[in-house]
Request: fold
Amino acid sequence: MRQAYPNDTDCRAMAQTAVDAVRGRIHTVAVLLGGTSGERPISFAGGINVAHVLEAAGLAVMRIDPAEDDWLAQLQQCAPDVVFIALHGQNGEDGTVQGLLDLLHIPYTHSGVLASALAMDKERSKVHYRAMGLAVPASVPVCRGEHVELNALIEVVGLPCVVKPVCDGSSLGVAIPKTIEALTVALEEAFAIAREVMVEEFIAGVEVTVPVIGNTRGQALPVIEIIPAAEFYDYDSKYLEGGSQHIIPARITATQTTLCQHAAVCAHEALGCRGVSRTDLIVSPDGIPYVIETNTIPGMTNTSLVPESAQKAGLEPSLFYQYLLALALEAQDGL
Reply:
């Protein structure tokens, strides 16, 4: 089983070596931000944050919003050496933009087409988690317009359960119904924003998340424990100041920490992620880490988890974001 995250010195050295290897190849960076999904405000905030840091590092940065009609012309006129993708949700994190950039032969940060599409689909990604021997909650996918036999569904997942869109992020449309009546309402609300919804077993325990950085072989960063102010880690908990408390390192045992890091690395590699990903888990009372989902473009706002974990591992924002650019070129080079 591998692996504990490298110590601060090793992590910094690994990142600095990668950045030094591409020095002189990166002058202009296009940051894709905003977009058309329901996560547009968060994407915009994270993208602006990244742009400021990269500009302070001496790079020329062009901010481009794919919601604008001429965004592709802007991108081609900019002729960036690499694109930093700060988009979230549909038409940004699901492989569509990634495919376009592949066709244009422009290197970009984060995962490629297949990994992005797989990770975005919370139900289908479970097939790959299970193939790696990872524990996942039981779940049932349901589509808008089809008859749902609630009692049969509850026999599989129990109550309380978790209702969530299959292909969306930032906890949009997520609910934890405790009764069959509440489940009916939760499904209606989820179907209002998504065609395909999943009803998932509720796992009680400690909520943690583990960033993993790297291309062909990922390195786990420090485990973060999340304590939301609300009932669960919803949209406000993620993005509002004071919405949640982040504890690094997480208050779990050393064995549980290793298991969580191992699970996150396995998830990263099972989906074929590259750059950086973030896998969310629940550590059950008996110490089993259940994989909930993997985010291929984690948030980069002032309250986001991945930059916080990276900082704990010795990667201040400037080095961290430049490392992601270096990994993008490394992926293009096939290294």
Summary: The first strand starts at residue 28 and ends at 32. The mean pLDDT is 91. The chain has twelve helices and twelve strands. The chain has two domains: 8-133+204-333, 139-201.
